[in-house]
Amino acid sequence: MDFAHSPRALELIEKLRAFMREHLLPVESELLKARHEARRGGDWKQWIVEPEVKALKAKAREAGLWNFFLPDPALAPGLNHVEYAALAEEMGRSFLAPEIFNCNAPDTGNMEVLWKYGSPEQKERWMKPLLAGSIRSAFCMTEPDVASSDATNMQATATLDGDEVVLDGKKWWSSGIGHPDCRFAIFMGVTDAQAERHARHSMVIVPLDAPGVRIVRMLPVFNDYDEPYGHGEVHFDSVRVPQANVIAGLGRGFEIAQGRLGPGRIHHCMRCIGAAERALELLIDRGMERQAFGRRLIDLGGNQERIADLRIAIDQARLMTLYAAWMIDKVGALKALTEISAIKIVAPSVLQRVADEAMQMFGGAGLSNDSPLAAIFAHARVLRLADGPDSVHRAVIARREIGRRSKGGGSRAA
Amino acid sequence: MDFAHSPRALELIEKLRAFMREHLLPVESELLKARHEARRGGDWKQWIVEPEVKALKAKAREAGLWNFFLPDPALAPGLNHVEYAALAEEMGRSFLAPEIFNCNAPDTGNMEVLWKYGSPEQKERWMKPLLAGSIRSAFCMTEPDVASSDATNMQATATLDGDEVVLDGKKWWSSGIGHPDCRFAIFMGVTDAQAERHARHSMVIVPLDAPGVRIVRMLPVFNDYDEPYGHGEVHFDSVRVPQANVIAGLGRGFEIAQGRLGPGRIHHCMRCIGAAERALELLIDRGMERQAFGRRLIDLGGNQERIADLRIAIDQARLMTLYAAWMIDKVGALKALTEISAIKIVAPSVLQRVADEAMQMFGGAGLSNDSPLAAIFAHARVLRLADGPDSVHRAVIARREIGRRSKGGGSRAA
Amino acid sequence: MDFAHSPRALELIEKLRAFMREHLLPVESELLKARHEARRGGDWKQWIVEPEVKALKAKAREAGLWNFFLPDPALAPGLNHVEYAALAEEMGRSFLAPEIFNCNAPDTGNMEVLWKYGSPEQKERWMKPLLAGSIRSAFCMTEPDVASSDATNMQATATLDGDEVVLDGKKWWSSGIGHPDCRFAIFMGVTDAQAERHARHSMVIVPLDAPGVRIVRMLPVFNDYDEPYGHGEVHFDSVRVPQANVIAGLGRGFEIAQGRLGPGRIHHCMRCIGAAERALELLIDRGMERQAFGRRLIDLGGNQERIADLRIAIDQARLMTLYAAWMIDKVGALKALTEISAIKIVAPSVLQRVADEAMQMFGGAGLSNDSPLAAIFAHARVLRLADGPDSVHRAVIARREIGRRSKGGGSRAA
Amino acid sequence: MDFAHSPRALELIEKLRAFMREHLLPVESELLKARHEARRGGDWKQWIVEPEVKALKAKAREAGLWNFFLPDPALAPGLNHVEYAALAEEMGRSFLAPEIFNCNAPDTGNMEVLWKYGSPEQKERWMKPLLAGSIRSAFCMTEPDVASSDATNMQATATLDGDEVVLDGKKWWSSGIGHPDCRFAIFMGVTDAQAERHARHSMVIVPLDAPGVRIVRMLPVFNDYDEPYGHGEVHFDSVRVPQANVIAGLGRGFEIAQGRLGPGRIHHCMRCIGAAERALELLIDRGMERQAFGRRLIDLGGNQERIADLRIAIDQARLMTLYAAWMIDKVGALKALTEISAIKIVAPSVLQRVADEAMQMFGGAGLSNDSPLAAIFAHARVLRLADGPDSVHRAVIARREIGRRSKGGGSRAA
């Protein structure tokens, strides 16, 4: 047992931190402030990628701080999940970092899908520019009219018609679809409703300019639109794409979705850890700066106990996430379902709690956009729903625990 | 001991419910949607009071559903706090109701202050139009540069100069100051920094058009500006007002603030109870409507236990708030500090929790503005800070508990 | 709405407090210490009622501080439930008080059952000596081999055979059955397994000396046997009693059980409130007495916030319990199911929490029997299971909430 | 980063599991039942080590499953802390296991102290028989009259007088002192009250038969005396021992105590993890066995979510404890204070929670001694106080967090 990161990971962490300290953090708050002041709100057609962001992307790529997430040494640093996790934590400290280093959701997940399941043509046409950071993409799974946590509820269809596939249905919470560089989405729909439960769905690449694709609106989270990514509501009305756009073959959508989710959750959760560390730093700093009743805020009431509890919660969440990452590396995502579901519950919830406590320490300033706390909180809140609400993940874990005991096994796998 | 409301209160509750059902609720969601779509954001100079709201105010006043909060039978229905509490709960179910019935913060608190402490001239000039609903007002206490939970930190000054008082300082979270009808604020500042701790401050009426008053910006709460009220940052630069604008006399600001806060907290907390009931209804309805894994969401996992826990939490919060109201009626706010601090902690926290759980049941729709949950949540969140953060109220309660035991008394007052 | 107790209740509270202060509290700790030192453990045949307890009972009866629980002015002070609740809280501060004032479980429930449903002969023979305090009784419902929270699981039988009823089955957690004065039990068994779900069971009076009744052992709660009451495991082997011992008629057991539980829960819960107040007093006193790191324990870390949170929790639990009592008085237990289930969840849980926190303040002394905290904790713990575990009560509340919304009603009854 | 145990640890885990499955578990419940039935209670002079336990010890020693805790390859398997942790978890599943494998507290801590700081003579005379399992020992630090969490409160003295040291004072919660084989204690007392805060105390070996040592009583935890170890109250009245009994030299007591606590906490916490796994297994099994309302208990209400939450809590606690163990191995206990304090808070608290929930699933059987849950619960409860209450550990963590930020560092060490 060894909790130290590999030398390769440690070296990249150092480089990443240095890059962020020197190039990113000095401009970030001004940039975000300018976004707020531009007040583009949900009007995504006005959204921009600022020149500073583009310059930082170029610089990061040049420095080799790029595509950490892809475990393919031919195309990227080739880290495993547990190594990447440490970098994701660092990137989670900044709202801009993930895109700067070409590690932002949902593009990472889409690149992984194409890398694992894509045809050579799909890789050439869609994965390559994503890896280069020259285009962005979206993922269209969740639907407005049903409980999407149950995949069998899905109403959208991907129907074969000759050598074309016809896409129909309504999707929402399609993250990233408002990005000015977003060029395509991966669409998930039912191809054969009569097939076995896990062989009904297909994943299909759909260019956003295909006739019949209509972005209806961007959805806010606590009035925040996550510019320039956005969470879109998108309607597909008899959208026709060549069958060559189907990923891995018709009916394999569920399988791909399963494979996509494990690593994606590691990414999200490790970013949560980084954001939580940042929120805790803000909390402590504010508590040291301000005074009331003759003492620093941090010395009043239960504030020190609160800090200790948050430290413990963050450290436990980090270890759990790293453990899940290691399990994926060792036995694969399908055998690490308990661990992946566990971190999906824990990490966003810890982040929300740290942000909430930091707001209390800040007072009103914590609720406004004078601090990043409101944005951090909103991010945590949406993650408690994205990729399945907590209750679905609890059910996954419970089913496995009970199953193991039914067979007379220990309550624990390992 | 009798938990039933008085016949007078019951009659008004019925009338209020009927009015809201017939006149208010049918238009509310359209109105709020229109506000969102107008996307005025923090640009408060563009804020409006919609004609529908004005019409509803007129209709409510005509129906005698007006100024419930004021315990003066000559000017209002003349309810006590425990009777008013029931009506505040009903109004809390709607974002528009408080103003429609002329019971919105901070005007209620300001009217009470003027009613209790105002000179005849102050009543005539400022209280009367407030009672008529023709103007609105703000309250300027919290400051950006210090921990305002400790009044001795206050930096703003109200200095006597001849027969004028000169106001200087920065205030923020001045709620209501963005309202198109807002005409004046009650400003709190230090008059004599050497005086006894509770005799330093003064409260002064300041017309918003007085030279030197500058509204710098509106502060968002999770990007929501609470249009058309707003939480403003206001700078006062050598603002001169006649000494006649001082309320009750120089040095009496602290005393007035104390008296103001008890009833105000009852109002806020009872509105929280109403909003929590509404959020719970939304949660249950959504859970009955949607299906996953072959069952209604409400029948899955721990959802029923969650509903039970929320019901218990709401009922306990309601009883605690009514008890605090009754204590104010019987022994006055200063002897009910434990109870008032208790509800100030409990009610917003219960509301935040119910809203949070309802969001989980709604999925993404709960975070966007398709449901009122995000606005309810933001409202609860700001109330955990407004009028003092939870930790300050815990300190108030603890001090009294310990004090009682130090004197050998029981742990409980009554 | 009026939170003040009636003059009658207030007068009795004063008298009860005075009696406890003068007569009971001075001897209680010595008495309990002597019990511990006697180390009779679960050997219930050695259990005694100490002469001091007998003397106090006589004195209390003489003073008219007796049978407060019975709402019958002909036989008792004739208080309603909300009045009694206040007295139950006071009695809850002491382990001995309930019996001293003839208000201890399960005798109170048994007396109520006989008072409401008993025949004149049953009242004469069994209720009268119970009311006089000269005998004690037990209640045999819970069974060892099934989940007793579901009454349809009950395996014990009460079969009519000529003019006798034959009782068979195993019961446990039969509280009070170890008492030296325990003379009879009320036994619940299935009479007609084919009858409608609520008409299957009967309640039958069974003298403990009837052939076939065998007390197998006393069950400990955290190794505490609750001497001299005890929780017994009792086997009934073809026990024959005259049909005249059936209460209210065969098949009415379920109905009686329902009626029995409402008031009984009020009693338990209000005693919890009293015990919680006592535990909080102990916590505060200890925190003031001891020092560490140069300060009183009470001034360290989050201790003051903890005290505030406990005060709030206790006050909310008290109000909720009083409200449930008032509902029983006004509309009857069957229409107050939500409120009764709510307090059944809340009050023992608050007591356990207060006792747990007090133990932390005491350190090791809190776990041993040098303080009453371990006994208080054990009492709270068993109450979270007695009369139905929390989860069953949550289900009751949830079903009613959802039912109300299904009919389009508000989420709240009143 | 590698979460797998070393081959050496894995091999020992397998052997240990096999031994426990074959030899220990089959006899454990009968043995514990016999102890209960013997009803020796706190009468420690009657306590015995059962012949079965002695035989198992001999067998374990023979099998090389012995002294895992000692990181000295010359005297023991020579595991590091992270390797030992896995074995401690396994042993934590049984109440008997720790002694069977000569790994029970407080002997492990005492052996470590003697191994690190003892003179050759001390090792020969006291450590050797401890390592052989032929005697047991106690540790006398906590005192009844002061808050012992602050070492400067200590009142007991160890005064040099010629070539003897004179011990005076009262100690309690001296664990293990009731064991029939207990031969000596390590006593901590003040030698020089004027010395620098960390140089005042000495640790002295005191044979239990030295004149002036008086065991006054055994202290129960929820009426459980932890036979045959016990928590004793011991008075030292002018007890004289040769100066050669001082460990490491006068004034070094604090330093030794610090070093002792780190590994000891790892041991306790890992045993908590094992006990929590066992309690969770019991919970799940009971929930599958019993039915109510037509379904298995485990399928009712929030039970499955509860299981998931407990699984997550246990896994996080395990990872945190392993991480602390690894930190001790890498950088030493003094640099791992945050991690050690974190697990000291988390692990007992998780164990108490799992035991509490399992009791709810069991109903009354969970509170009695028919299941091991009450004993598990009591064990968890005492651990929340032993080695410092949670609040002291929170203060340790907070101080370090704040210190790091004061110096401009990140909120996290690594």
Automatic annotation (TrEMBL), chains A, B, C, D:
UniProt-listed GO biological process terms: fatty acid beta-oxidation using acyl-CoA dehydrogenase
Pfam families given in the database record: Acyl-CoA_dh_1 (PF00441), Acyl-CoA_dh_M (PF02770), Acyl-CoA_dh_N (PF02771)
GO cellular component terms, A-Z: cytoplasm
Keywords for this protein: FAD, Flavoprotein, Oxidoreductase
Domain of life from the UniProt record: Bacteria
GO MF entries: acyl-CoA dehydrogenase activity; flavin adenine dinucleotide binding
Location of the Acyl-CoA dehydrogenase/oxidase C-terminal domain: 251-400
Cofactor(s) annotated in UniProt: FAD
Record-annotated membrane-spanning stretches: none
Acyl-CoA dehydrogenase/oxidase N-terminal domain mapped to chain residues: 11-133
Alphabetized InterPro entries for the sequence: Acyl-CoA_dehydrogenase, Acyl-CoA_Oxase/DH_mid-dom, Acyl-CoA_Oxase/DH_mid-dom_sf, AcylCo_DH-like_C, AcylCo_DH/oxidase_C, AcylCoA_DH/ox_N, AcylCoA_DH/ox_N_sf, AcylCoA_DH/oxidase_NM_dom_sf
Acyl-CoA oxidase/dehydrogenase middle domain ranges (all copies): 138-238
Family: Belongs to the acyl-CoA dehydrogenase family.
Summary of subunit composition and partner proteins: Homodimer.
Protein name: Acyl-CoA dehydrogenase family protein
Native source organism of the sequence: Hydrocarboniphaga effusa AP103
